Amino acid sequence: MIGVSTPHVLLGLLAQGSRHGYELKRAHDQRLPRARPLAFGQVYATLGRLQRDGLVAPAGQDRDGGPDRTTYALTGAGRDALDLWLAEVEPPLPYVTSTLFAKVLVALLVADAERAREYLVAQRRAHTDRLRELTAVKTDPSATLDDVVAADFAIAHLDADLRWLHTTLERVADWHREVHS
């Protein structure tokens, strides 16, 4: 799976106004609640590259009761780069890059059909458990719209995986025979 473009997300957050690295990390983690949290080092390294490329510029120093923090602002070139990125349509991924799919295939290669079936059933259970967790997140009265939209996105992907697991369970014996023929 191709990852999120951290530089572009940071540019988008800076389009809302100047911020220092800590604020950007916090805003990223809040706005993308189901994404992997950014490491502080990743934020500052990315800001360094964005500054080098002229897409952000220092806008001042902020002490805020702690060490000096450089506040960054989006430049005109940064806004242009952000607008260009936003105008690009994301193509559907051309390859199946799922670890789940690979594990099922390998299980069929090295184990009997029943063991592959057991793996699929266990995986279906794990997906169903995660689906319940995400449903609880999105129905929590304190959930933000960011939480709900991110949970909906994850739920849609889990639903697709569950449909695939269901149909694959029905085909596992035939697939096992084909793999071993």
CATH class of the largest domain: Mainly Alpha
Shape: elongated
Say how many strands there are: 3
The helicity comes to 55-70%
Give a structural overview.
- The chain has helices at residues 6-14, 21-31, 40-52, 76-87, 99-110, 113-139, 145-179; strands at residues 19-20, 56-62, 69-74.
- By secondary structure, the chain is mainly α.
- The protein has two domains: 6-87, Winged helix-like DNA-binding domain superfamily/Winged helix DNA-binding domain (Arc Repressor Mutant, subunit A, Orthogonal Bundle); 99-179.
- The protein has a three-stranded antiparallel beta sheet with strand order 1-3-2.
- The chain is elongated.
In short:
This protein has 181 residues and is mainly α. It is built from seven helices and three strands, in the order αβααββαααα. A hairpin with a 6-residue loop joins β2 and β3.
